[in-house]
Amino acid sequence: MSWQLRASDLPDLARGATLLGTGGGGDPYIGRMLAERVLGDRAITVLDPDDLADEAFVIPTAQMGAPTVMVEKIPAGTEPTLALRTLEEHLGRKADATMPIECGGINSMIPLIVAAETGLPVVDADGMGRAFPELYMETFAVYGVHGSPLAIAGERGERVVIDTGDDDRQMEWLARGITIRLGGVAHIAEYAMTGAEVKRTAVPRTLSMALSLGRSMRLAREEHRSPFDAIALTLAGTQYAHVRELFVGKVTDVERRTTDGFAKGRAVISGTGDGEDFEIEFQNENLIARRGGEVVAIVPDLVCVVDHESAEPITTEGLRYGQRVRVLGISTPEMMRTPEALEAFGPSSFGLKEDFAPVEGAAVALRP
Amino acid sequence: MSWQLRASDLPDLARGATLLGTGGGGDPYIGRMLAERVLGDRAITVLDPDDLADEAFVIPTAQMGAPTVMVEKIPAGTEPTLALRTLEEHLGRKADATMPIECGGINSMIPLIVAAETGLPVVDADGMGRAFPELYMETFAVYGVHGSPLAIAGERGERVVIDTGDDDRQMEWLARGITIRLGGVAHIAEYAMTGAEVKRTAVPRTLSMALSLGRSMRLAREEHRSPFDAIALTLAGTQYAHVRELFVGKVTDVERRTTDGFAKGRAVISGTGDGEDFEIEFQNENLIARRGGEVVAIVPDLVCVVDHESAEPITTEGLRYGQRVRVLGISTPEMMRTPEALEAFGPSSFGLKEDFAPVEGAAVALRP
To answer: Residue A36 sits in which domain range?
Structure first.
């Protein structure tokens, strides 16, 4: 069902999107501020995929760059719409709607800014069902819609169009080169597609999911109920059905470097009891979690580090020594676990040697 | 006067273009081979700027990258025309002619390949009057024609369009990033302009100049006359009127590194007599020559290292220990010595502290 989104929804949406960001995707705080400013009293139509005409033309919009840079380099706010307009001009066709390519983190907000500026609706779907660091890691690409041509806009009005045909990895490689030279953050429009293609290739209703998650966590806190129960109840029966508490402890080590346009590193979390250590490796997003050396969750399943009491999600760039945290493992939608999907964004895409194993097969169920 | 260029002209043109390349611009050998293959028995029309209609539409074409990579990464040959077609498509306007952006080195050849493939004429002019390492170092830009939009084509059919408005340095910065990610060499179309703009901003008749230089050197060798006299006689009375022999000696040291997409370094040449050393610094092209620490020639004047007997020009990537060489200083055209020109490609553009001083004010005149 399509619905109207208002500025008052943005804090909840941001919270849920940060959880789905699985440590990456950029802190949506800045995006939320920009969206609130542009939105004002107006409403945005969030279009259910079922309500999208097959022949409608959808141009997704996003920010790309290292989250460590995103928090320091505030966009002017006009770049995402400039990227959309540049791609429209290049293709000679106007968009009927925009859409996220990534529902986790700041990229849940960027299409809202475009929608508020242009009056276009936003499709309630995305191509990652979470956040991933690279542009070819999209269900769109996995199921046959390619990212090219891609338009990039910079804060000084720079406009770049990249066309690598069917080669989405080469598209990512070239777009990343431009993004680095634009200072580490840029705004893009890519994966232009029809309504029929959205229905076939996108992860559906992920904006709604982020908003539901964020809202249920807030309400639980206000009503002094467990926000962890609220997360489990919200996800039960959805495409993210399985939630596991993987570890409880204190952050005792964080290594983080911004390299090749990404934030890469690892975090160690130490338990209070048996002294067994828990380790997470990340590239923008959390990729793999090991407990005492044993893998307990691995990409594309979601590994989410959250505050041990409030369940407020913590991004990889927000990890600090001494934080008391819980780590949640959440099962990714089934369309993201197929062999062709795992080839695009499974463990081997990140240079990990481990095979994918569903999080619901390991660890202990979230209490109660 | 317009004229017809044939494959048999290419060896002479390549030799002259290497001399005008002032150490850089890439060895035209590979470009010459590609041009010969495409040209076959046909002729290319080389259009004198005077014969170009004011309203004609000209799209220059070129290769960009580090010369050290150019000699190792052979292009497929179709990329320069793909770059031209990409820019035509982007602008919605067909070119009436192509033109070099740089008459020195391989970029004297690239527009010939395009001309042979498309049947377009090549304008007898360029924007450097020699070779320079960066795309904003153009008389076009100095006199008000900007490089954007620029199209890049890669060997796997990648196509990129970059538009930075009037900011030609940002255009260079972004295009260089793409070129590095395409493996160090790419082909471009940029500085699209009208015939009237060509007449106002281009260095005229530089293809003719390269061909005359190469031909006169060859004839002198065949007739056992001095090729150095031939160079001086060919240039006398032209916009490159002043030729100075700056040093004779043996290459005793070469430092060279490929960094940030450029070949940077220095060469030391030692004399046989008083032991005074001669040093050249280069960034793709030779930038400054010092004799005993005193500057004797500086960019944008031409510093050319040639074989001490045959006068065959030696590129910066061709410099080797033990070579016996002469170093020539050649005055650059006056339109390249104006204050606005020196701002774009004078010594300070290359981080040199020295001011520009005309080569004809220093050193000893070339014998006789």
So the answer is: 3-204
